[in-house]
Amino acid sequence: MGLIRRHPALVPLLLLGPGLAWLASFYLAPNIQMFASSFWSGTLESGFSFSLANWVNYPNALDTYQEQYVRSIQYGFAATLLCFAIAFPLAYFIAFRAGRARSILLFLVVAPFFTSYLLRTIGWRTILGDDSIILGPLKSIGLIDPSARFLDTPFSVIAGIAYNFVPFMILPIYVSLEKIDRRLLEAAQDLYASSWGAFRRITLPLAVPGIFAGSLLTFIPAIGDFINAELLGNPGTTMIGNVIQRQFLVVRDYPTAAALSFMLMLLILAGVALYGRLLGTEELTSKAI
Amino acid sequence: MEAEKKFGTELDRRTLLKAGAVAGAAAFLAACGTSGSSTAPSESTDGEKVPSEEINFANWTYYIDVDDGVDTATADTSESLRRFKAEYGTTVNYQEVFLDNDEFFGTIKAPLEAGQDTGWDIVTPTTWMAKKIVDLGWAEKFDKSNMPNFVANLADEFKGRAADPGNDYLAPWQSLMTGLGVNTKKTTRFTKVSGLWDPKLKGKIVLLTELRDTVGLVMLGNGADPSAPTRGTFDAAIKTLQDAISSEQVRKLSGNGYTELLINDAAFAAIAWSGDIGIIQADKAELEFIVPDEGGMYATDNMLIPKGAKNKYTAELWIDFYYQPEIAAIVEAYVQYICPVKGAAEEITKIDPALATNPLIFPDEATKSRLKVWGDVSAEDQAYFDEQFSAVVEGVGA
Amino acid sequence: MRVLQRLGGLIASRFLVIYASLALLYLMLPIITIALFSFNDPVGRSNYSWSSFTFDNWLTLFRDPTLVKAVGASLRIALVSTIIATTIGTLMAMALVRYRFRFRKAIDLFVFLPLATPEIVLGASLLTLFVTLQIPLGELTLILAHVMFNVSYVVVTMKARLSGFDMRLEEAAADLGATPWQTFWKVTFPLILPGIAASAVLAFGLSLDDFVITRFNAGQVQTFPVYIYLKVQKGIPPQVNAFATLFFVATVSLVAIGALLQRRRANLKP
Question: Model confidence over C195-235: pLDDT tens digits?
């Protein structure tokens, strides 16, 4: 006790201690170990051996699965855009137009998050099925081409991914929008700005931290997702997540799987850094979240 | 300023200590409160053999009898499991967790490597995977003195197999045929593998993620022989597959889930397993299982006791119990695969005479002659095949 | 000009209302479907097409012992990991917000990293760790894993809440003669309690719903999401839909009650 009084600097360290220890043991250590395993060669039956010469695992893996990386970026990007298109107007509406109903609406937005991710995705199979309870009637009355297929297509995969991350996109944007001082907008109006002008010059820029956080929180998991591609996709929509999953659990080619995982992480970190640079802020991660 | 900092640290220390205590207590609770998978007290260690209260049985889906209107097999809802319980007092914890040979193996590999109990007393890999497990030394050897029925009633074709020459590790559960599953209402009935590539079926076919079944059938369709696969014939089959996938002919590559697609009309034709179609025919009569003209694949799933299983003796009891013709017939009548138990055929007709002519359970000679088993090749070749096919499943070059 | 602008504004806001309603409907659609199909009496095992209405599934919720076990496991793991993670995370957040020290930014980033790591990588790396250390996979390893990713979420949430905390309140309490202990429990804690509660709810939900990391590290144990995944292939029993709807309603009610209580407290203030 006296120790702490004499060394107040110890307090934050003690507070951080358990958390850091946990993260070090269960995040840092495993990843270091996995990084080491990306330099293995061999098989399960014959045993694995470590060698720095196995750095070729990386370019080999990249070469084979280039398409999946590219596709993951594309789908992640598309899903984030779609998510943004859904979330932003909704967030704007709740922040500026909803008044009393604000909390209820916000809650309704987040509510889907409280059901199982898997079930929600499977729910889309029920909804988008060729002759589903929704599409069936629409097809029979001719609104949709009867031979059109929405399930097991890139569309269903991207829509599925977007759907799952709407709460992550909406909440940060809402928080940013809500913080905006209304008097600024009033002042703009007094200065004869059009509502579009006020939006473009005041609201939007001030919403940027929220948009940044929201799109990060969407894009990052979206890129690594495999559930949507597996449940809602076809062989032509496989993402890098599907490959990594298969390599770890089915093929058990741990070196390749590890190499693929690390390249994915690098991709994400690079993307985050680039995005941050583009928007001109580095503090955004800590501020907006 | 000083005061603030001073009591700032004081109160934080107290908070910290209290919180630390809470966290510690929680962790302690966590450690004692969770016991992982429950294991009932197993056989006594003093040499006297007593059946355990519970055994854990991992199997594929649609692979055991269930009562009408029920979809999960438990000791209360499955006649065979019920009778076992009545006889020995053991509840079989039956889990349909086998989706794919490789995937399931992935879940038990780690404990087996570490010499630990996998949590399963019986698992049912297909012969090629079972052989792998046996060769790695990860299968328990049967104590045949506990298994007189097994010794007496095992069908002759399973004696002296390359995977298990002495029948010491594997007890066949069911044999299956791989062929075409066709929705005869949505598409014209076809009997050749090439019928899968009919442009009218674009986007409406689903193939299996099991190499030996899918590539085997495609090879047969190409006129090659899967019981003696070469890199050449294999590559040609892979090419056929990849062409079908890139042209969007194939809607999905699925494990066990293909039946869902057939049921929902998401797919009109599939590479299918015989018994699966037999079972879902009950609800969807237009589905038909066809062994293609060019031939079909044949395989067997085997019961295996993983090394370190807690209830080895009781597991052997179950295997032996199953190898009684009346019990095997009960399972057979429901799953409609091919039974490895001698004498089950007569028992089946007692349950339901109509089943005597069921082509899935009793394929005729002409059909049988068309069935092939995937050939044994060198480890290098098989590894090559695995790699190539895996790439297809992963959508490389799709 | 003004009139046109006004008109444009009106159209825009009408459009906004319609768009927002459609978006909300879109968000609710799968939930409604899940709940709806819990009342379905499926033909065979496949619960994708509607056949007939029945209460049967709700009455036989506990029919499948595996499902019940899975739900139990999920709840247990979620509860324990939430308690641990919320505690550890809150402590960390307090340290990161209230103090300046070397490496603060580095630690900030370090805590954020698990959020930036794809779940697959988290799950797979943990698997390799447990296998190497020969720790048997089961509920224990799942708790360890869940705490790990939940800590990051809790820290991030609590930091946001704590950064708005007005230290003058604590000063005032001290000036009025409160001991540090009293200050903490009577001033600080009640104020950060909503934040802690929010983080706890978040962590609980994340743990309950986690699939990817769980799948890699569960071994034999089935949690609710793992059970669903195994059943996807051959037909999900409608009881699963019922359970999911139950969870949803329970969480909604909890949050609603919490909000009502808060409003009540706010109304009581002069």
Answer: 788 788 888 888 988 888 898 887 778 899 988 888 887 77
User: Using the beta-carbon criterion (under 8 Å), do B34 and C139 form an inter-chain contact?
Assistant: yes
Residue C199 lies in a domain: yes
B49: closest CA of chain A, how far (Å):
35
- In this complex, which chains have at least 3 CB pairs below 8 Å with chain A? B, C
Percent of chain C with pLDDT strictly greater than 70: 95
For residue A285, what are its two tokens? 């991660």
Say which DSSP state C88 is in. H
Is-same-fold flag (B54-175+299-360; B178-296+372-393)? yes
What contacts A101, CB < 8 A, 6 or more positions away?
Answer: none
Position C189 in a domain: yes
- Confirm or reject contact between B255 and chain C (CB < 8 A): yes
Structural domains in chain A, CATH included, are: 56-288 (1.10.3720.10)
Q: Is A101 on the interface with C (CB under 8 A)?
A: no
* C168 belongs to a structural domain: yes
Q: How far apart are CA B53 and CA C109, in angstroms?
A: 52
> Is the alpha carbon torsion for B339, B343, B344, B349 positive or negative?
positive
Which spans in chain B are helix H?
A: 2-33, 79-88, 101-113, 127-135, 148-153, 211-221, 231-246, 258-263, 274-281, 312-322, 325-335, 344-351, 365-370, 379-393
Question: Between C13 and B298, where is the model more confident?
Answer: B298
Fold for B178-296+372-393, please state it.
D-Maltodextrin-Binding Protein; domain 2 (3.40.190)
- Looking at the structure of chain C, the number of domains it has is 1
Domain boundaries, chain B: 54-175+299-360, 178-296+372-393
Would you call B297 helix, strand, or coil by DSSP? strand
Is C26 within the bounds of a domain?
A: no
Among left, alpha and beta (phi > 0; psi -120 to 50; other), residue A192 is left
Beta-carbon contacts of C21 under 8 Å, excluding residues fewer than 6 positions away, are: none
Domain carrying residue C207? 64-236
Contact flag A258-C248 (C-beta cutoff 8 Å): no
Model confidence over A155-196: pLDDT tens digits? 999 999 999 888 888 888 888 888 788 888 888 888 877 777
Superfamily of segment(s) B54-175+299-360: Periplasmic binding protein-like II (3.40.190.10)
Contact (CB<8Å) A127/C30: yes
Is this complex scored with an ipTM above 0.85? Answer: no
Task: Enter the tokens of residue B383.
Answer: 């590894």
Indicate the average pLDDT of chain B.
84
Contacts of B299 (CB under 8 A, 6+ apart): B126, B127, B128, B175, B176, B178, B212, B213, B373, B374
Read off the pLDDT of each residue in B123-130 and give the average, rounded to a whole number.
Answer: 94
Decide: B280 and B259 in contact? Cβ < 8 Å: yes
Task: Tokens 């694949």: give the residue.
Answer: B297
pLDDT band at B306 (very low <50, low <70, confident <90, very high): very high
Neighbours of chain B (3+ CB pairs under 8 A): A, C
> In percent, how much of chain B has pLDDT > 70?
88
Higher per-residue pLDDT: B17 or C92: C92
pLDDT at C270 (0 to 100):
56
pLDDT, one tens digit per residue, over A161-171 is 999 888 888 88
The rounded distance, in Å, linking the Cα atoms of B121 and A191 is 79
State how far the Cα of A174 lies from the Cα of A210, in Å rounded to an integer.
7
Measure the CA–CA gap between C144 and C140, rounded to whole angstroms. 6
pTM of the predicted structure, to 2 decimals: 0.82
Closest CA to A166 of A77, A81, A231: A81
Of C120, C126, C228, the CB nearest to A226: C120
Read off the CATH number of the domain in which C199 is found. Answer: 1.10.3720.10
Split at pLDDT 50, 70, 90, the class of A7 is: low
Task: Give the tens place of pLDDT for each residue, B321-365.
Answer: 999 999 999 999 888 899 999 888 888 888 888 888 888 888 888
